[in-house]
Every structure is written in C-alpha cells, then in structure tokens.
Design brief:
Number of strands: 14
Order of helices and strands: HEEEEEHHHHHEEEHEHHEHEHEEHEH
Largest sheet: 5 strands, parallel
Number of helices: 13
Strand content: 15-25%
C-alpha cells in the first residue's frame, strides 16, 4: 500500500494527462545543494544495537534489513542500506524499566536538574549531532528518497527548532514568558513549566527527523523522560544520533525502541506507566494506541494526524500564482506531507484556464534520482499506518 497523499498525487497526474511515472525509479526535488552527475555509493548504517539505560549494547536478536526505494540495478531489488534491531514487546518493557528508574517519581537526576543545566546539556547534544549532518542527510536521501536539498532542509530546520525551543524555555526561566505573576480575569497566577513524567515519542516516516524532534526536544528541556519508538521507515537518522545522547544524558533519560510498532507500543501503553503520548501519523493508529492505555483520561496526548488540505482558487485570483502554489503545495516531497494540498476547489468561471496552466506546470516537473535535483520523489509500498 502507498500513502493516501501519494495516491492523490498519482490521480492528479493522471487526470492532467501527465505521462506515467515508473515507481521503480525515484523522482526528487529542487534546491541549492551541490549535486553530482554520478550515482553516489549507498550508505550503510549498522543498527544492530540497543540504546537503553544510557548504554549502547550489541543486539543479538532478530535483525531487520533497512532498504531504500532505490532499486539496485545489479540485483534488481531494493538497496539494503542498514539494519536495525527487531525488538519484541518484552524488549520494549525493558526500555520502560530504565525510563521508570530515570524518572523515579520525579526525583530522578534529570527532572531534578535546573532548567539551565538541562539547556546546556541539550546544547552539547545538538553540537554533536551537527557533526553528523552529512551522514544524516545521506541516509534521509536513501531511506525515504528525499532530494538532497529537502533532506538538508529537514536537518537544518531541526537544528533551528532546537535553538528556538531553547530560546522559548530560557524566556520561561527568566520569567518573561511564564513564572512571573500575572492577573488574568481578576485572578493572580504564576505559570511554570514542569516535567510530567515518561513520554512515548513516535515520529512519522515522511519527516522522521524534524517531526520527531518537534516533540522530543521540548519534553527533554522540561525534564521529562523519553522512550523513542523510532519509525520503521526513517529509522537510520536516529541510529546515528545515539552516541550523542549516550555521551551527555544521565542514564535512562532517553531510550530507543525499534522494530514493529504494533509489537512494541501496545505493551508500553498497557503498562499504564506512560504519562505522555506524542504521536504523528494516522488517526486509526492513534486511536488504537490510546485505547491500549488503562487510564486514557490521565494520559497527556499530543497528536498530529492526517489532513485533507484544501486549496481554493477564487475568480479574481492571479492564475499564475495559484498554479504555482498548487503545484508546489501538492508535489513537494511527492505530496507525502500532512500539510500537502490534496483537494483544490476552483471557481467554475476560471476552471478551463486554470486546468490548462496547471497541466503545463505539471508537465514541466522533472524526474530523476534524489541527487539529480528533480521535483518529485516516489516512495513505494508504504503502509498507511506503519509506525
């Protein structure tokens, strides 16, 4: 199965009369990163390891090959670019034990640190991860077939988000954005951000680095403990960050779980020890995960789910601008974004000229490999609710 966004894009291309696209060949995006004329050598990341309780240990259990949608011309099959541990539910519960110990009912080392101390540690982690920039961009390009420029943008925006999160939390600590006494509707109040407990963090396959960090970093800054279920597709970027977390964080503050989400996530939720769920994905998967928690009314939930985003073109619209925005909005990273335009409503008085220009715009899209600087990039066989 493929994502609903990809299906929508393919239907739109077909309706516009655009030539069919071979899904065995990847197609990629535009940008400013330097490109090579020669196909690069595929990366290989050895994820046969476990990161729990602050330790990086070898994994002796079952392994999963991580493959790229890019077909190896020599073998005719998907290129193998790494391997990860295929953990069981029992393995996930071991990660939970480490998290419980690190939290220690809020008395653990990390939640008891001052906010300033946590900020300095996050900065050191960020500095180490920046040293992995080229490697992370490379595996994003191969594993989920983002163009080099889109992968670079995802990494750089993630680093900017970390900076912004630190700035916001610093403002809170300084009292300029919280902590100070305020009067709201005649009531004096002081608002401070505090740790809640153990967060289960699940990121998506399409922006596995950026979207995961959108929940991970604020949680860590405020003193929470994290179990990160790395995405089944888009996992290798996270494997590359393990040494940074192991080096700087107290034991058990963040613990990685890999393998099938259906196998590992349910035991974690059923334990009742998860205090926060941060999930980015499909609504059906979110409902199933929340349902497993014995006390869902006590669970703090952060969700970013699928959307059917609508573009509206009115009679007085500048058609060139409208066509450009619909093209970019529906095809960037082949439309596999929750914010991608999936439906377009056009006033009947301008439908013919709009469709004519949109068809020409789509025909101008280039196709090629992720390192070629094209504009679309197809992923194949992506389960809708893979987590």
């Amino acid at each position: 199965m493929v994502s609903s966004s990809l299906v929508g894009l393919l239907l739109l291309l077909a309706l516009l009369g655009v030539a069919s696209i071979d899904v065995i060949t990847t197609v990629s995006g535009v940008g400013v990163t330097k490109h090579s004329d020669k196909p690069p050598t595929s990366p290989y990341v050895d994820g046969a390891k476990v990161f729990m309780g602050g330790e990086i240990l070898p994994w002796s259990g079952r392994l999963l090959d991580v493959t790229s949608p890019i077909i190896n011309e020599a073998t005719g099959v998907r290129t193998i670019i790494g391997k990860i541990a295929d953990m069981t539910g029992d393995d996930a519960l071991k990660a939970l034990e480490h998290a419980i110990g690190a939290w220690n009912n809020g008395r653990g080392t990390w939640p008891q640190m001052s906010g300033w101390e946590r900020i300095e540690i996050i900065k050191r982690i960020q500095s180490d991860i920046k040293l992995k920039r080229d490697e992370i961009i490379e595996v994003l390009t191969w594993e989920i077939c983002k163009s080099i420029d889109d992968a670079a943008s995802e990494f750089d925006r993630t680093m900017e988000f970390i900076d912004a999160s630190i700035d916001a939390y610093t403002a809170t600590l300084n009292g300029s954005n919280g902590g100070a006494w305020k009067t709201v509707n005649g009531i004096m109040a002081s608002i401070r951000k505090a740790a809640i407990g153990i967060m289960l963090c699940l990121g998506p396959f399409n922006y596995p680095f950026n979207e995961t960090y959108a929940t991970l970093i604020p949680a860590l800054l405020t003193g929470n403990i994290v179990i990160m279920k790395i995405p089944a597709i888009g996992c290798l970027a996270h494997i590359l960050t393990i040494p940074a977390y192991a080096k700087h964080l107290p034991k058990g503050v963040i613990n990685f779980v890999s393998g099938s989400g259906r196998v590992t996530v349910s035991p974690l939720m059923k334990s009742g020890k998860i205090d926060i769920l941060a999930f980015i994905g499909g609504s059906r998967a979110a409902d199933a995960i929340i349902k497993d928690h014995p006390n869902p009314h006590r669970l703090k939930v952060f969700l970013q789910l699928e959307g059917k985003n609508l573009g509206v073109v009115l009679p007085d619209a500048d058609l060139d601008v409208a066509v450009e925005q619909v093209t970019v909005g529906s095809t960037t990273y082949n439309g596999q974004r929750c914010t991608a335009i999936k439906l377009v409503m056009v006033h009947r008085s301008i439908i013919e000229p709009f469709l004519s220009r949109l068809k020409s715009s789509f025909k101008r899209l280039k196709s090629g490999m992720p390192w070629d600087g094209g504009t679309c990039n197809l992923l194949t066989h992506q389960p809708v609710d893979s987590y």
